[in-house]
Design brief:
2 copies of one chain form a homodimer. Chain A is an all-alpha fold and about 190 residues long. Chain A has 2 domains: about 45 residues, Homeodomain-like (Arc Repressor Mutant, subunit A, Orthogonal Bundle), CATH 1.10.10.60; about 130 residues, Tetracycline Repressor, domain 2 (Orthogonal Bundle), CATH 1.10.357. Chain A has 9 helices and no strands. In chain A, helix 4 crosses helix 6, helix 7 packs across helix 8 and helix 8 packs antiparallel against helix 9. Chain A binds a DNA duplex (30 and 30 nucleotides) through helix 3.
Chain lengths: ~190, ~190
Amino acid sequence: MAVTDSLIDAALAILEETGLPGLTVRDVAARAGVAPMGVYSRFGSKDGLLEALFMYGFASLQAAIETPPTASPLTRLRTGCQGYRRFAIHNPQLYHLMFEQMLLLDLSPEAKDLAQRSFGTLVERVHAAMTSSELAGTSSTEVAQQVWSAMHGAVSLEIAGVHFATDRAQSFTAMLDALLIGMAPRR
Amino acid sequence: MAVTDSLIDAALAILEETGLPGLTVRDVAARAGVAPMGVYSRFGSKDGLLEALFMYGFASLQAAIETPPTASPLTRLRTGCQGYRRFAIHNPQLYHLMFEQMLLLDLSPEAKDLAQRSFGTLVERVHAAMTSSELAGTSSTEVAQQVWSAMHGAVSLEIAGVHFATDRAQSFTAMLDALLIGMAPRR
DNA sequence: ATAGATAAAGAACAATGTTCTATAACATAA
DNA sequence: TTATGTTATAGAACATTGTTCTTTATCTAT
């Protein structure tokens, strides 16, 4: 329905413009041209609306890390990581919502499943790089978790403005390179 | 003053018990045995109280990463990182507040300075490890930022419950090891 | 001991999430 | 076409919470 999309669009705009504290049901509804009740009839509650944003965010993130196959699986993994950062930097408040509110929001199984699917993509890329002997280790899940942790930390601190490097994109790449080198097979 | 400490203690307890949404001025004041006004006369606002928690948190974090000198600077760095994780896991809501609210709260210069001092400790450890040729690179700030990013990401996801590794402490150590290996001088 | 200042308690106010109620729109069946 | 049951909407109303105001108590200094 058009109103549902309008509400999500309005919420996304307000979120990035004013941050989470500025995201009120009244403002979202007004911007979408409906009464506050419209939010409740469609999303059940404000948390329901936030969950819709959460899912929209993970769908976007999924698209951002999607990459065409390349000669080297490790290169493809790297490209996906750059897409990850690009998404986070372009949608800082949404990214913040997606990850920092996970702890507070109790998400529906569908929402959790969607988030997990993004992680699954990363696991696949890691697995491919292991198969091509560009990464060492036995558990692709373990390694993917570690890569994700590092990426998430870097973009989180960058979004929060807690970053002391001069070139942040370069710093992100350098960290990732060091990590992947440390994960490479010893010879 | 005793009341100020009581308020902070009460706020810390409520924070860890019920999370940030459950941290209301009324509840904090009641638990400390004073009227809500007591919060405002001492901290100015709820955000002022949160900033006090923020500063308490960074003082605790500073203590947690403090380690006696060891034979190897890199070992000392590793020990400090383990202390970092221990603090975060033992005070998840406080850790969450410290880092995720940085973006929203506008902190006083003193608060920012305190946070930066913790980072300074990390930079020193990295610098020492560079001097002893256990780490490569030129900018200890850059490298420290990358180490911090990875640590922060790992504990953030762990706290948020977004962690697919079986042994989380081991996963943290493995990530850190890989990163530090990747940062070691090539030979 | 008293005057001034300080702090506290409780009421009151504003914003916001949520619910209630009455009304309007709409689909469906005879 | 019309009547009816359902759904959606608008606007008011309610509860919670951050904040402020007002009055009262307490404390300090001379």
